[in-house]
Amino acid sequence: MPTDALPPLHPRAAELIGLLALEPHVEGGRFRRIYQSALASSQPGRPAATAIHYLLAAGEISRWHCVDADEVWHFLEGEPVELLCFDPEHDAIRRHLLAPAAPAANPVIVVAAGTWQAARPLGAYALVGCTVAPGFDYGGYRLLDQAPEIAVRLARIAPDTLDLA
């Protein structure tokens, strides 16, 4: 979405961006790496785990992407996030609500390595934490425009999610 089309930032979202020194993320939203394990993973040059703060404000999205490691999303504050996960092996989409614990919501959601994922805030803003193990590496990260065959499958089974491309 073009920046000029975004609604004004919620005051708390703007405050968090400054307090946490968040920068624009390639998939959308804003982030800052807050942790990198001193321990190495079994993959040379890659830490055992990393963690980020990640903020999505109204009108922003986390575009469809795939990570080659497990990712754990933790709800921190704000309003709920819809987290979508696409399992290419079974052509199945799962919709999760990342929010304070409730019958239909969870404050922690695990996305398995190799699962395509996208997210959107369902309110003014959401601050989450994302922990990746083994640690995040851009070499193991793909956006949907790098996987046209996945885009075609998503268009067929979940056309309502294409705004997350």
TrEMBL record:
Q: Where are the transmembrane segments?
A: none
The record, for Gene3D superfamilies, names:
Jelly Rolls
Q: Which InterPro entries match?
A: Cupin_DUF985, RmlC-like_jellyroll, RmlC_Cupin_sf, YML079W-like
Which Pfam families does the UniProt record give? Cupin_5 (PF06172)
Domain (DUF985) spans 15-143
Q: Which PANTHER family match?
A: DUF985 DOMAIN-CONTAINING PROTEIN, RMLC-LIKE JELLY ROLL FOLD PROTEIN
Q: Return the protein name.
A: DUF985 domain-containing protein
Q: What is the lineage of its organism?
A: Bacteria, Pseudomonadati, Pseudomonadota, Gammaproteobacteria, Lysobacterales
